[in-house]
Amino acid sequence: MLMEDTAEGDCLVVSLMEERLDAVIAASFKDALLERINQGQRHIVLDMAHVGFMDSSGLGAVVSILKHLGTKGWLHLYGVTPGVMAVLKLTRMDRVFKTFDSRQAALVS
Amino acid sequence: MATVLKIASNPDRLSLRSAVNYHLEVTLAKMSKDIGPEDYQLALALAIREPVIRALNDTEARVRQAGAKRIHYLSMEFLIGRLLANNLRNLGLYDVCAEAAADMGLNLTDILETEFDPALGNGGLGRLAACFLDSLASLAYPGYGYGINYQFGLFRQSFINGYQREQPDNWAVHGTPWHIERRDQSSMIPFYGRIEADLDDNAQYSPHWLDWKSLIGVPADIPVVGYGGQCVNFLRLYTARAPAEFDMGVFNEGDYLRAMEQQVAAETVSKVLYPSDSGQAGRELRFVQEYFFVACATRDIFRRHIADGHRIDEFGQYNAIQLNDTHPALAVAELMRTLIDEHAMGWDAAWAITQQSTAYTNHTLLPEALERWPTTLFERVLPRHLEIVYEINRRFLSEVATRYPHDNERIERMSIVQEGAHKEIRMAHLAIVGSHSVNGVAEMHSELVKTQLVPDFFDLWPTRFNNKTNGVTPRRWLLNCNHRLASLISNALGTGWVSNLEQLVRLEPLARDAAFVKEFLRVKLLNKTDLAKRIRDATGVTVDPSSMFDVQIKRIHEYKRQLLNALHIVHLYCRITEDSVPMLVPKTFIFSGKAAPGYLLAKLIIKLINNIARTVNADRRVGKSLRVVFYPDYKVSVAEAIVPAADLSEQISTAGYEASGTGNMKLAMNGALTIGTLDGANVEIARDVGEENIYIFGLSADEIIRRRQTGNAAREIYESNADVHRILTRLLDGTFSQEDRGLFAPIVRALLDQGDHYMHLADFVDYAAKQQQAARDFQDPQVWGARALMNVARSARFSSDRTIKEYAGDIWGLKQVV
């Protein structure tokens, strides 16, 4: 699984460099993000621009990350592709996750 | 090469030959010594595919430009038949192709015969859907079919010692140039999982559908060429694929086995039409199939609606969705889910759009054939949809309770949820509640829907119910399958009848023209000669083309009463061999049809007919006066060979059971006289062709009901009627089953001990009398020919063009896009 971390002030921008967020990588993706949260990271911007497909395991991983942050921090998504947005809408999770059109907007909101 | 790749919409024989040779050599990579008729068929299809696809694109551009409303016809089956010949006819290219083939030393008919029938349907419902697509395109309506691209359709039928044998019909293995795969428009479809309850920012219930599994629906379009070639619509069929198939990573990691397992499990969904529903797994697969194609279709319709530049709240203005029977009834819940969950619409607005766009066609009066799904299955496979169905029902029952206070029995009868130890969802109720229109498929059927099947719903919403009598496309079922008769008609009337069947009425005066009737009979004899050759090739039985061809071609079912026909043949056989009474005219009884693999009595009826055929055809006392054949593996192309050659059309279902029938229409349109009961569309055929041109017999639907109430008295008939007694005795005495005298005992038991539910014996005497009358009439060719011609002349109302115009005007609010 390929991920790139970029620090932006007190935010961490995590770019998932995979075309699919599915059962193959969901567990390791979740573990990697939980590790960052456990290390104290509270504000995470998830760059989803490379991800064209997300299944329920992938969605479950993102949901776990959000729940793990709880009220202590926030998770913003940007670069959400139509395929991933379809899944968010299908599950009504588009009303739970905050999604943004640009990295800048995700950082300043 | 460049000219080959730009074949004109009206190519000459030279460019056609050039294109065919190009595709043989380059596309199919065939060396000249290896080329067979099937290769020519593929190459010709590839050659004309080009102008077809251009017309398909042009049609889509016109529809989009016009901002036109579209109709989407959702059906579990599309029995489309062979495509090449029909497309050539509709494009007006048939004759030039025949000339080009002749130039190459080939016979176009032989080439066309090599095409495999797409096995995408079972019976009348699927064929109706195909006729509707032809009419939609021929009338330039923006109308599209949505279904499943079954790898194995209904089974291939053969006979082993007279028993039906079922083998997989792997029709797709031969490949078809007509599929246009649209991978870029694939859809991800979720199943299973659970609902996690949550509240949104406004403290409203906000469920999340989590932990689902998914399938990918990959669409392939089959172009539907309208007559004249100007309008080309499409039939969009979905194949189920595992998401893993798209994941090269799984393969690259070396986990081939897991990837393959996922793929095989997923592909099962589009593997077979009607998996056996006797077990839990089969029932679940069927349910998954229904949701799979409904969900794929819904996503596609929304995608196109948005691409057309329309707003979501305009969905009902621009889209109509017709549910062909209850199989796609999940569309009601899926539309609601899409509007509410994916487009954040409020319930009332979503419900208004769902009802505005959806309409339901009922196809059956048999309560046991109305689909019901256990709520346990529903909840496991589609948890979010079940929530929505419950909410639809809660609101609906509240409306019922307001209208009929304190009538709890009515509420129980009308509820979408059938209560009890095993709760079930009544799909017909869901379809009725979610639609703005509910139609039956023949006048009589539509009345019975209102008065017997769902009278409570009719009482609540009388204006929602209407009739749309079925029809058949005259392109496939006259122009293409009976080119001799088509030419005769065109020579007399011109070709306008092909797109306006009402012109056939101008044939009526010609029924009094002896020369024309003689020519009409000559055409029929040639068609019968062609069929006789096919029968010899398929069954080994030699039949006399001058004998009366008495035809019963349809699914084998007790209510369709192939058994009544068989009992009558036994009667005729006994008259010849025991009473020395010769036949009035030589007769050839032709059966064709499949029995459902699990329907044992229907399969025994097939065995009985085959055994009768074996006995009768081998008996020298019968000579050539009586022949019986069971043509194997009934399908569209078999029907296209039999229909033009029929003299007498058997439409003998127990009154009140056949919704409409369409075989009755095809056969009348091709100049067969009907012998039938007052059932389904027979009633309307009788009214249109005139009672002097049809043989109506038997109990009416009302009489059947009354007789059931007072006792059918089948055994009394058996004991009092010597003919009936003798027939049933012969079924038991080994005349037709020397190897096992008890073989047909279950059939006799069904008639005598189990009440003869379908009234074979009650209708037998009248049936035999009408058969006798038909035989007498057949003795005078001029009289018979004139009556047969009157059937053709008065068949206009049974064109699916008429039916589609009624749907378009009354239900869909659709406009032609020319």
Name the descriptors.
A: alpha/beta; Transcription Regulator spoIIAA; two-stranded parallel ribbon; 39% helix; 27% strand; globular; B: 818 residues; alpha/beta; Rossmann fold; 10-stranded mixed beta sheet; 6-stranded parallel beta sheet; 13% strand
Summarize the structure.
The complex is a heterodimer of chains A (109) and B (818). By secondary structure, chain A is an alpha/beta fold.
What is the average of the pLDDT values of chain A?
92
Protein structure class of chain A: alpha/beta
Largest sheet composition of chain A: 5 strands, mixed
Query: What portion of the residues of chain A fall into strands of 2 or more residues?
Result: 25-35%
- Order of strands across the biggest sheet of chain A? 1-2-4-6-7
How are helices and strands ordered from N to C of chain A?
Answer: EEEHEEHEHEH
The residue fraction in helices of chain B comes out at: 40-55%
Secondary-structure map:
The complex is a heterodimer of chains A (109) and B (818).
Chain A: E1 3-8, E2 11-16, E3 20-21, H1 26-38, E4 43-47, E5 53-54, H2 56-69, E6 74-78, H3 82-90, E7 98-100, H4 103-108
Parallel strand pairs in A: 2-4, 3-5, 4-6, 6-7
Antiparallel strand pairs in A: 1-2
Helix pairs in contact in A: 1-2
Chain B: H1 13-27, H2 37-66, E1 70-74, H3 84-91, H4 94-103, H5 108-112, H6 124-138, E2 143-148, E3 156-160, E4 163-167, E5 180-181, E6 187-191, E7 194-196, E8 208-210, E9 213-225, E10 232-241, H7 248-252, H8 256-267, H9 280-307, H10 315-318, E11 319-324, H11 330-342, H12 347-357, E12 358-361, E13 372-374, H13 375-381, H14 383-403, H15 408-414, E14 417-418, E15 424-426, H16 427-434, E16 437-440, H17 443-453, H18 455-460, E17 465-467, H19 474-480, H20 483-493, H21 514-539, E18 548-553, H22 562-577, E19 587-592, H23 600-618, E20 626-630, H24 636-642, E21 648-651, H25 663-669, E22 673-676, H26 682-689, E23 695-696, H27 701-710, H28 714-720, H29 722-732, H30 745-752, H31 760-778, H32 781-793, H33 800-812
Parallel strand pairs in B: 1-2, 1-11, 2-10, 11-12, 12-16, 16-17, 18-19, 18-21, 19-20, 21-22, 22-23
Antiparallel strand pairs in B: 3-4, 5-9, 6-9, 7-8, 9-10, 13-15, 14-15
